[in-house]
């Protein structure tokens, strides 16, 4: 069973389109994340949700909107796609452990987005 | 703002060598530090997590150390194998922030 799954795996689309990426985790974790890995392979946090509540929102354009319908799902919707949005988007999850420490983060396989 | 640096950026070694990957971070107020492995075109696999109160963690041929006061961690790989070839990423979770700050990675190639 896949612990953290993302769909689609690949996404090729035209500039200006709106697209969504879905993420699901079956680990029972309470925290989920979206990270972006750019062409230089540098990973940066975009958003983090804990129990469906947004707790981290980095300086990401308003065109990116995360949605968490429940603890096991965190979707990412992107409006008016731009060339610079081309990247690999990773979903991850973790569990708040003892003393408020986040435990190991588990990553999905990534969604490779190419904007033409 | 936390910054994570990994040295070297790339490393090529013959099979069987022991090797050390380095990670440094600028803000020592961290919850934990994680080492990940990323294979080309794939996601990240967690290798080791060291809590801020710990000095090291071991898993098989891997040993990670943490010196929080100096802002450094090392990943030691013993008896390297071609299957160890991948990019190794170091990431820290800051106190009060529930997301990881990543280094740019060390790309390892182990020659058979």
Short account of what is shown:
The complex is a heterodimer of chains A (116) and B (112). Chain A is mainly beta and 116 residues long. Chain A has strands at 4-7, 10-13, 19-25, 31-37, 43-50, 53-57, 64-70, 73-78, 87-94, 106-107, 111-115.
Task: Based on the model shown, name its key terms.
heterodimer; A: 116 residues; mainly beta; seven-stranded mixed β-sheet; B: mainly beta; six-stranded mixed β-sheet; five-stranded antiparallel β-sheet; 11 strands
Walk me through what this model shows.
- The complex is a heterodimer of chains A (116) and B (112).
- In chain A, 0% of the residues lie in helices and 54% in strands.
- With 116 residues, chain A is mostly beta strands.
- In chain A, strands 2, 4, 5, 6, 9, 10 and 11 form a seven-stranded mixed β-sheet that branches. A four-stranded antiparallel β-sheet of chain A has the order 1-3-8-7, with no helix packed on it.
- Chain B has 112 residues and is an all-beta fold.
- Chain B starts with a strand and ends with a strand.
- At the A-B interface, strand 4, strand 5, strand 9 and strand 10 of A face strand 4, strand 5, strand 9 and strand 10 of B.
Topology:
The complex is a heterodimer of chains A (116) and B (112).
Chain A: E1 4-7, E2 10-13, E3 19-25, E4 31-37, E5 43-50, E6 53-57, E7 64-70, E8 73-78, E9 87-94, E10 106-107, E11 111-115
Parallel strand pairs in A: 2-11
Antiparallel strand pairs in A: 1-3, 3-8, 4-5, 4-9, 5-6, 7-8, 9-10, 9-11
Chain B: E1 4-7, E2 10-14, E3 19-25, E4 30-38, E5 44-51, E6 56-59, E7 62-67, E8 72-77, E9 86-94, E10 100-102, E11 106-111
Parallel strand pairs in B: 2-11
Antiparallel strand pairs in B: 1-3, 3-8, 4-5, 4-9, 6-7, 7-8, 9-10, 9-11
């Amino acid at each position: 069973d896949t612990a953290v799954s993302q769909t689609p795996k690949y996404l090729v689309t035209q500039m200006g389109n709106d697209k969504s990426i879905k993420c699901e985790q079956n680990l029972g974790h309470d925290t989920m994340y979206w990270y972006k890995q750019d062409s230089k392979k540098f990973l940066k946090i975009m958003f983090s949700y804990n129990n469906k509540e947004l707790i981290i929102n980095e300086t990401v354009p308003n065109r990116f909107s995360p949605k968490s319908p429940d603890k096991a799902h965190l979707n990412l919707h992107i409006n008016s796609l731009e060339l610079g949005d081309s990247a690999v988007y990773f979903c991850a999850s973790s569990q708040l452990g003892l003393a408020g420490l986040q435990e190991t983060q588990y990553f999905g396989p990534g969604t490779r987005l190419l904007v033409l | 703002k936390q910054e994570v640096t990994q040295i070297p950026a790339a490393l090529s070694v013959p099979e069987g060598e022991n090797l050390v990957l380095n990670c440094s971070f600028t803000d020592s107020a961290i919850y934990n530090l994680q080492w990940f492995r990323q294979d080309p075109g794939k996601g990240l696999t967690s290798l080791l997590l060291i809590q801020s109160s710990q000095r090291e963690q071991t898993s098989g041929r891997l040993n990670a150390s943490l010196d929080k006061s100096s802002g450094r961690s090392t990943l030691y790989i013993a008896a390297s194998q071609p299957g160890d070839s991948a990019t190794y990423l170091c990431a820290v979770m800051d106190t009060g922030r529930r997301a990881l700050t990543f280094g740019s990675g060390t790309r390892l190639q182990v020659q058979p």
